[in-house]
Amino acid sequence: MGLLSGAARCLVRGADRMSQWTSKRGPRCFYKGRGTKAPGVRARGGRFVVVKEMAPELVVPELAGFALKPYVSPRAPAGTDAPLTAERLFREAVAPAVEKDVRDGTFDPARLDKYGFEPAQEGRLFQLHPKNFPR
User: Fold this and answer.
1) Cβ pair 19, 25 in contact under 8 A
2) Distance between CA 55 and CA 49 in Å, rounded?
3) What are the φ/ψ torsions at residue 126 (nearest 5 degrees)?
4) pLDDT > 70: percent of the chain
5) What are phi and psi of 90, to 5 degrees?
6) What does the pLDDT look like over 45-69, one tens digit per residue?
7) pLDDT in tens, 83-103
8) Which are the contacts of 112, defined by CB distance < 8 A and separation ≥ 6?
9) What residues form DSSP beta bridges with 42?
10) Distance CA 132, CA 124 (A)
11) Which of the residue ranges 6-10, 14-18, 40-44, 129-133 would you say has the lowest mean pLDDT?
12) CB-based contacts of 42: which residues, under 8 Å, 6+ apart?
């Protein structure tokens, strides 16, 4: 908003009627919309110019012959997998690599970071303290 138009807005009687139309000032059903980027730019005189490169491009995969449906019934039976625990995750993800290195004779206890172990906790969002460990 320019300096002159701002000053004129203050001097004109009924300046509150001239203020911008927002969802706070409008009727209950008025929704201005927020959070999305405009597919263009405002030009002189308030004209909107659509820029093809700014328009969103939706990439949809070909789903012909796809067996799964997008809906899951609430009556569907529960899954048969057991819940994932820390011990099960370790046995499935890390233990095979450790066992292989022990068999090959290349296991080094000083290089545990190779298996994902992080001894230092600096820079973590939630640092692990003994009271935070699961019992």
Assistant:
1) yes
2) 12
3) -120, 110
4) 70
5) -65, -45
6) 889 999 999 888 888 888 888 888 7
7) 888 888 888 888 999 999 999
8) 119
9) 48
10) 14
11) 129-133
12) 48, 49
* Distance set, CA 70 to CA 36, 43, 73, 88 (Å): 26, 42, 10, 30
C-alpha–C-alpha distance, residues 41 and 47, integer Å: 9
Q: What is the model's pLDDT at position 104?
A: 94
Provide the β-strand partners of residue 40.
50
Q: Which helix (H) or strand (E) is 41 found in, with range? A: strand 40-42
Integer CA distances (angstroms), 41 to 22, 38, 56, in order: 20, 7, 14
130: which 2 tokens?
């003994």
Q: How far apart are CA 71 and CA 22, in angstroms?
A: 37
Distance from CA of residue 7 to its chain's centroid?
A: 42
Q: Tokens standing for 46? A: 């308030």
Q: What angle do CA 92, 95, 100 make, to 5 degrees?
A: 125
Q: Which amino acid is at 4?
A: L
Mean pLDDT, rounded, of the chain: 79
Average of per-residue pLDDT across 126-131: 58
Give residue 54's identity as a one-letter amino acid code.
M
In the block, residue with structure tokens 């000032």: 25
